[in-house]
Specification:
This protein has two domains: 18-82, no CATH class; 94-224. The protein is 30% helix and 25% strand. The chain is built from four helices and ten strands, in the order ββββααββββββαα. The strands form three sheets. Strands 5, 6, 7, 8, 9 and 10 form a six-stranded antiparallel beta sheet that branches. A two-stranded antiparallel sheet has the order 1-2. Strands 3-4 form a two-stranded antiparallel ribbon. α1 packs parallel to α2 (94-116) and α2 crosses α4. The chain is globular. It binds zinc ion (2 copies). One zinc ion binds next to loops.
Length: 231
């Protein structure tokens, strides 16, 4: 019975990062919190993010604190984030944009490919955004979905944004670009426009509908035509 009261040495437990009064101001305008942490994002050139943020305005991913922008970048590039040479420049929003559009279209693209899949074909997809090059050797961030069979690729759908035009989202089905457009929220930000939430929602829906219809049409055409492989 005495064992109940016996003092035990406690093992130090792994404690989750808790907000502590760090004395650093949050850099988000209007935020009064002074328990901010420095964003630990360092890009491939070795530049460090200068932003500090409180727990309300940042995220901890695998033990490392990030500001919102870089948390989104790290999520977009997945495993590439652990490669110091794979990390996009500090102000590069492109991987996040590709990832955002990909998440919105993922269900639709899978459904299209699964419906189009023939005997022995299956759908595989990237789980993160990665760097690739177009036919002109220009760098672009992309994420793709592929219909494959045991002899190889049948059809690839990719969402990509190039380094030199970082607002324009393009979609390829096979070798053909079937849709491109600047997302409405980016177009508005560029023009300094502000709209009601309902208009914002309607514009986004219209944009995604256009992308979805373009993809569906191209997949149908591919399957309606011959079955040669397209890259
Ligand atoms: Zn804050
Ligand atoms: Zn940051």
């Amino acid at each position: 019975m005495t064992s109940l009261f016996r003092r035990r040495r406690r093992e130090p437990l792994a404690v989750p990062l808790e907000p502590e009064p760090t004395g650093i101001d949050c850099t988000v305008p209007g935020c009064p919190n002074t328990d901010a942490l420095r964003c630990e994002y360092r890009d491939r050139r070795g530049h460090l993010c200068p932003v500090s943020f409180c727990p309300d305005h940042g995220t901890v991913i695998e033990g490392a604190p990030y500001c919102r922008r870089h948390a989104s970048t790290v999520r977009a590039i997945g495993a590439l984030a652990s490669d110091p040479n794979g990390r996009p420049d500090l102000d590069d929003r492109t991987p996040s944009l590709v990832n955002w559009i990909s998440r919105e279209l993922d269900g639709h693209i899978r459904a299209q490919l699964e419906a189009a899949a023939g005997e022995g074909e299956s759908v595989v997809s990237d789980d993160a955004v990665h760097l690739s090059r177009d036919q002109n050797r220009n760098l672009r961030w992309e994420r793709s979905w592929r219909l494959v069979e045991n002899t190889g690729l049948v059809l690839k759908i990719s969402i990509h944004v190039s380094a030199e035009n970082d607002e324009l989202v393009r979609i390829n089905v096979g070798s053909e670009m079937v849709a491109d457009g600047i997302p409405p929220w980016i177009a508005r930000r560029k023009m300094g426009e502000d709209v009601d939430v309902s208009i914002d929602v309607a514009q986004r829906q219209l944009f995604y509908l256009y992308l979805q219809e373009s993809i569906a049409k191209a997949v149908a055409e591919f399957r309606g035509g011959d079955r040669r492989s397209a890259r």
